[in-house]
Design goal:
- With 120 residues, this protein is an all-alpha fold.
- The chain has one domain.
- The chain contains four helices and no strands.
- Helix 2 crosses helix 3 and helix 2 runs antiparallel to helix 4.
Length: 120
């Protein structure tokens, strides 16, 4: 048995993540129905908001990894230090894709309001 429990628990965690993504899609569809903006613009706004949240999360997570020494077992050195930054960025992207901490939602809502105001 792994640290994550049984296969059923892992599958349930995956499904829970899928539900959150589906809820995000549903919220975007609802926004599309209640706004003057087209689907392409809303998709770009949503993507930009998630990218912003991922960048924020990446900056917040960097100090967590600064004190961890490179492991010589797997080569270590400068290469591992460089790839650690990529790893932090990927963690941040995944967190933002799964709903993050709510920054993307607030940024998306503000961007939509700004775009709608410019249409008037």
């Amino acid at each position: 048995m792994s640290d994550y429990g049984t296969f059923d628990n892992t599958a349930a965690m995956y499904r829970a993540g899928q539900v959150k993504i589906d809820a995000s899609s549903l919220a975007l569809k609802h926004t599309l129905a209640s706004t003057k903006l087209d689907a392409k613009t809303l998709g770009r706004i949503d993507s930009a908001a998630k990218d912003f949240e991922a960048s924020f999360l990446s900056e917040m997570m960097k100090p967590m990894f600064e004190g961890i020494q490179v492991d010589e077992t797997f080569g270590g050195g400068k290469g591992e230090e460089v790839f650690r930054d990529f790893l932090v960025q990927e963690y941040s992207k995944k967190m933002a894709d799964r709903g993050g901490i709510g920054i993307a939602t607030a940024v998306r809502d503000q961007m939509i309001r700004t775009q709608e105001a410019s249409i008037k």
